[in-house]
Write a structure and sequence with these properties.
By secondary structure, the chain is α+β, with helices and mostly antiparallel strands. The protein contains 1 helix and 12 strands. The strands form 5 sheets. Strands 6, 8, 9 and 10 form a 4-stranded antiparallel beta sheet that branches. Strand 8 and strand 9 form a beta hairpin.
Length: 150
């Protein structure tokens, strides 16, 4: 009975074929991830009985505030203000997520990315001692501070 010829790869051809398969596998994994912005949940929401409405909070339950005068990329809360009002930051390239549409803006004083809601930067208030406090609501200085409400 005649013997069937078998296909044989020379060693160099086999190495090239294996390398090509490996490269395709790596590209198949890497390409979908390339350009994808990592997202991170940084905001929750809770009903605040004192204010009688639902407000945005940090994941630890601290009320988040916006300053009425901070619109269109203008920062009013700088230097001394930041000792009382603490910006909510995310890392560079991170897309913040939560129960409402969020964004980020680069702070001019330190270059960090601050989370925004409806275009206004979000802050926590030093006068809130714990979860559910809203002692910063209605404070007036160069604008009025309000708990962010979706």
């Amino acid at each position: 009975m005649p013997q069937q010829p078998t296909a044989r790869f020379s060693r160099p051809r086999a190495r090239v074929a294996i390398a090509a398969v490996a490269a395709i596998a790596i590209l198949a994994i890497a390409l979908p991830a390339q350009g994808a912005t990592p997202s991170k949940r940084v905001v929750s929401q809770a009903h605040n009985a004192t204010l009688g409405k639902t407000v945005l909070t940090t994941l630890a339950g601290r009320t988040l505030y916006t300053l009425s005068a901070e619109t269109g990329g203008t920062f009013i809360c700088k230097r001394g203000c930041l000792a009382t009002w603490h910006p909510l930051y995310v890392g560079a390239g991170v897309k913040p997520t939560g129960p409402a549409k969020l964004g980020t803006i680069k702070r001019p004083d330190n270059g960090r990315r601050q989370v925004t809601f409806r275009g206004r930067p979000l802050y926590t208030f030093d006068g809130d001692e714990g979860k559910g406090d809203a002692n910063g609501e209605g404070i007036r200085d160069v604008g009025t501070w309000h708990a962010a409400s979706p």
